[in-house]
Amino acid sequence: MQNISAQDTLIRKLTTHSRLSTAESAAIAELPARIMNYERGSFISRQTDFARDAFVVLTGIACQQQTTRAGARQILTVYLSGDVANVDPGFAGESQDVIAITPVEVALISLDALNHIFTEFPNVGTAFRREAASELALLQSRLVSLGRCNARQRIARFACEMASRQRASGGSEPEFIEWPWTQEELGDLTGLTAVHVNRTLKSLREDGVLALSRGRLQVTDWNAIEFAAGLNRNSTDQKRPALHKCLADLSLQPTQAEYRSI
């Protein structure tokens, strides 16, 4: 795999939804970055940390999570290669719990350095806000999934999301999706028990919708998985799974035999 600098990774991400001038790209290219590596299960940041750095995921998969006092975890956001986190830690100055789902390489970038660029080049700040809006759209889609989808739809929708995002970031082969998730992690993401996740994945495999092998997921029938997910066909490309930019307005389609209650 060709090595791409942290700054180039960030520029490529920002230009997904925005245009940057030569001067703006040059300013980003000059940002100082510290490269850090984290093993699976390691905390990249904790909610109690005082945030001084944003970070760009260079390789691997990470997630943002919150844990209740009782110890129950909810995975909120999934970060893939090129995604940016912790740009706006909030008024309290706290970062979020971000944990590595796979071995992860990230680039830490000073928030002070970013704020300096935002002041000098307001369009760069706008580009970051667009990426934040895209992340919010994904979160809204997951809220719909948690509140109005059955188990089969939740798992299928997440598979479609991962497929489209990994392809957009150049991180997966055409027929396969990186799928490092344990059943417990999928449960924390979809609001299901590990037993229910196992039962749902088994059902999708038996129905010929997908196959799982050695940390990779293969969708064997895209029409079937989109139907299982309850995706609006008007929001999807006819040749590919649901596109990242469409996930915000994916609507549930009434199903009959496929609609299975939790």
UniProtKB/TrEMBL annotation:
Signal peptide span: none
Keyword field contains Transcription regulation: yes
Pfam families: cNMP_binding (PF00027), HTH_Crp_2 (PF13545)
Gene Ontology molecular function: any one: DNA binding
InterPro entries referenced in this protein's UniProt entry, alphabetically: cNMP-bd_dom, cNMP-bd_dom_sf, HTH_CRP, RmlC-like_jellyroll, WH_DNA-bd_sf
Residues in HTH crp-type domain copies: 149-223
Protein name: Crp/Fnr family transcriptional regulator
Keywords: DNA-binding, Transcription, Transcription regulation
SMART domains according to UniProt: HTH_CRP
Biological processes, Gene Ontology terms: regulation of DNA-templated transcription
